[in-house]
Amino acid sequence: MMVREERHLTVPGRFESLARISEFVIAAARSAGLDADDVFHVEMAVDEACSNVIEHAYEDRQGEIELTCSTAEPGNLEIVILDHGRPFDPTSVPQPAFIDPSQIDVMQEGGLGLYFMRKLMDDVHFEFVPNQGNKLTMLKRRHLAQ
Amino acid sequence: MNIETRQLKHVTVVTVVGRVDSATAPELEKKLHDLIEADSSQLILDLKDTEYMSSAGLRVLVSSLKLAKKKGGDLRLAQISTRVHEVLDLAGLTPVFHIHPDVVEAVGSF
Asked: A33 burial class (0-12, 13-18, 19+ CB within 10 angstroms)?
């Protein structure tokens, strides 16, 4: 029987924290038994999520980012990211515009982070918890051999 | 992240080592934009040792490509790692860049 494992990390909501956040989630994803591709996908989704928190929720204020990684079910990794910044509304983020290489001059450069998170993870859920802040829950399921 | 530049013929090769995330992307953007503004608009980014690139890094690649083209040059990519390739594919950006397997071929392509 797999023992449920939970890991926590609290870091200042600054870009300088991103490398430490990545080390933390890589270790948790490996420990959950994810393969190298899935570990990379988790690293990237969490990096994009925390970059958004720092850039938007903490744009005009300081605060901490609290991460919890847990193996909610065997082989699945759940990541909860909590911040105390401005409420984030995912519906306010435009879909990235896809790209005609000949139209590079008019290409938009935003919206990619959220798009990556949704592509790379099996579930992405945002909520705003009054008196707490933004709570993002993401799930990565271990792929079963074909 | 570490950035090194060298000149090969009329082309500037910029080697990026380490992580390009939201913490380091502004430094890469400044380096590339400074080079382009100083008339080195024929650029190759050697990404062999770029272990990680987030959407912040991709935005730098795109903004630098736009600026280089505006100046009559180009920003071409060489030796991109599997991970960086995956990220470019995911963003639909692969067709936007000239991608070369090695630096010598990339230099010859200008």
From this structure: middle
